[in-house]
Amino acid sequence: MLKLKEIDNKFFEFIKKHYLEILFFVITVISLKARIDFLNYQSQDYTSFLVNWFNQIRDNGGILALKQEIGDYNVPYLFIIAILSYIPLSPIILIKLVSIVFDYIVAIVSMMIIYELLKNNKNKHLYALLTYSIIIILPTVVLNSAAWAQCDSIYTTFVLISLLCIFKEKYFKAFVFLGISFAFKLQSIFILPVYILIYLSNRKFPIYYFFIIPIVNFVMCLPAIIFGRSIMSCLDIYINQTGNYIGYASMNFPNIYALLIDTISESNLIATPDIAFSNYGTIFTFGILAITAIVILHKEIKIDNKLLIELSLWSVLLCTFFLPSMHDRYLYMADIISIIYFIVNRKKVYIPIVINFVSLYVYIEYLYATKNLPIAFVAVINAVILVVLSKDIFLKLSNKELVTEKKE
Question: Is residue 138 within 8 Å of residue 117, measured between CB atoms?
Fold first, then answer.
């Protein structure tokens, strides 16, 4: 009996000493199971586009096929598909596997951000694990990769690495990683206004660093150019991509246009009345960002790391709410940043809950062809969160504690 008690005590001590690692392992296993259950699900995007691109690349020599204009995704993602095409497995498994791997990378990078922002907090390990656990089992994160076969975790990963570099004042690296993110998805530009605000606030890096973004994009397109694809066809991918959707104000996304215009189909497609209407949404977005920049310049505001996270979340919400031609998944980056925002501030838990609810709504609408709530109603909820966050930010920008002392 004494020996059994001794074993029990040692087991308890082991659990007590390594409970964070054990929880990390358990959450990882659970999250993997959640993804495995969706692996055979074929979304419309997969059947109409992704599998066709994969087969076209595989049938035309793998990497050699990069010289062709296949699909409307940028070269880096197609390069990954080309590498995978040599593996004798089902395309759906290979395509989803890449995104799933990045699910875990984005969750781990989020942990690293928490470690950096809460480095003086004695509970930082617990908060970091909590961040990982929430993000890796977020419904939209699971559905995006495992069900939809989309790759939003890739560009979001590099955005978060870029922000981590900003926190550590490694600005050159920050722009390199932002450039990598841009090379994977155009949606990375939702975070770009924050970098402009940082430049205006801190002036700790030269303005020409912004040119790193297109340079990195060009470098990442070199594999296709080397195999024969024209430079111009690589550089205008995003121009052509946005041009395909210029006739839509919104594509199943609950933003301002869902409040102003009736949908034209069961898929919540919202047509643009005219070009001027869409342009106004873009101009309005730039106007709000310009006002924010003027406030920062006029009051000589110093953006700290916590405010930077809040501005990053706000920037994504603002852009997706007012810019035209927004798609279902474009709130993905906000889903993840909202969790980091809450863990860092540990208040207003309703903000990440509502943001992820809005995002999940469009996922369910698309993946399962259901219409449980009017899109205009969800757009109102989205608007409320944007107003709340905007109010918080502008109150902080007017806070004297954030204003640097003016030189006499």
Answer: no
Same domain, yes or no: 144 and 286: no
How many angstroms separate the CA atoms of 299 and 117, rounded?
25
> Where does a domain end: 237, 258, 280?
237
148 close to 45: Cβ distance less than 8 angstroms:
yes
285 and 249 in a common domain: yes
Residue of 321, 310, 252 lying closest to 284 (CA atoms): 321
98: helix, strand or coil: helix
The answer to whether the beta carbons of residues 163 and 305 sit under 8 Å apart is no
Question: Which residues touch 372 (CB under 8 Å, ≥6 apart)?
Answer: 361, 364, 365
Q: Are residues 340 and 197 in the same domain?
A: no
Residue 218 counted as domain residue: yes
Inter-helix orientation angle 2-36/91-117, to 10°: 120
**What's residue 11's pLDDT?**
72
Do residue 401 and residue 263 come from a single domain? yes
Distance CA 145, CA 87 (A): 19
- pLDDT value of position 1: 59
User: What digits encode the pLDDT tens for the residues 206-247?
Assistant: 999 999 999 999 999 999 999 999 999 998 999 888 877 777
Does residue 8 belong to any structural domain of this protein? no
pLDDT digits (tens, 9 = 90+) for 104-143: 999 999 999 999 999 999 999 999 999 999 999 999 999 9
Nearest to 313, CA basis, from 202, 382, 389:
389
**CA dist 29 to 20, 83, 92, 102, 266, Å?**
14, 27, 21, 16, 37
Same domain, 164 and 259: no
Domain that holds residue 295: 245-408
Relative orientation angle of helices 91-117 and 124-136, to the nearest 10 degrees: 160
Give me the sign of the Cα torsion angle 65, 67, 70, 75: positive
Domain count, the chain: 2
**Residues of the chain where predicted confidence (pLDDT) is lower than 50:** 404-408
Q: Which residues contact 408 (CB under 8 A, 6 or more apart)?
A: none
